[in-house]
Specification:
Elements (H helix, E strand, L loop, with lengths): L1 H11 L4 H13 L1
Length: 30
């Protein structure tokens, strides 16, 4: 799951930093 989040964040970051930030928080909680 961690790798899935990481890969998704890398792809989504330039498109939607706000959503990326939310996923980053979820990843840290996980």
């Amino acid at each position: 799951m961690g790798k899935w989040h990481q890969g998704y964040i890398e792809q989504a970051y330039p498109h939607n930093q706000g959503f990326d930030y939310a996923l980053l928080i979820i990843k840290r909680i996980d």
